[in-house]
Design a protein that fits this description.
The chain is an all-alpha fold. About 75% of the residues lie in helices and about 0% in strands. The chain contains 13 helices and two strands; from the N terminus they run ααββααααααααααα. A hairpin with a 2-residue loop joins strand 1 (about 55-60) and strand 2.
Amino acid sequence: MMEKIQNNLKFVQELIRLRFQHLMMFRLGFWGPFFVDGSLFLVELLVFQAIYANVDSIGPWGKGEMVIFIGTFSLVNAVNMVVYFFGVNNISGKIRNGEIDLYLTKPISPLLRLSFEQVNPGSLPLVFLSICILWYGVRLSGVKVTPGLAAGYGVWVFLMIILWYEMEVIIRSLTFFVVSTNNITRLEEAGIDLCMKIPGVVFKGFYKLLFYVILPYGIIATFPAMYISGSGSVKMWIYGVAVVGVFGLLTAFLWKTGLKRYNSVSS
């Protein structure tokens, strides 16, 4: 088991190295995304400023918690954009046009290769800018950050990065079973857009069921923000870990089942 993990890590490192070599061959292609993603981030920040400028609180949260929430969602999204989004986002297209055949013939997990072959360093500025927002939110809310608190927050962010990855793979794995996933992808985009602007603490009834259980984008920034602001609980930890675990099992099931019923375009 350990040997397999080590081999996978070496493979991922090699994929990233090759990706950087390819990008550096085209310098504009390497540095251009830094400017584009940084500019988009600033525009997004102005939108949030316009939304929250005249709002003192949302539900039980004050401005400090809201800024931490925004920074957390931005951080998770930025890591997603850097590490796996562009690889995972190509899954549906590769299934439809048969390119996934090439991945099935290699002695490595197709999903592993698909996930990490399109690493995007152009989104790294978003990571640093998100951390700046977090720092401002912590100062604004008066939270005293200890090593233990920072470590716990880091664990929450890591769990939410995994959850976002699972959600992306699940939605794109549905291409194995249906003709088109366009409507599902639109639902994903709408859910992310809503949960990026509105913290999960204000969701009630059907909306809480939808964004905490069915499409749990509502917990991605809410739970880490609740933890670092001191309003977390043991139940929150249990629920968060359970959601990541359940969606991890669902991801593995859909992917493996989809591969079994997949018919090559060339067959």
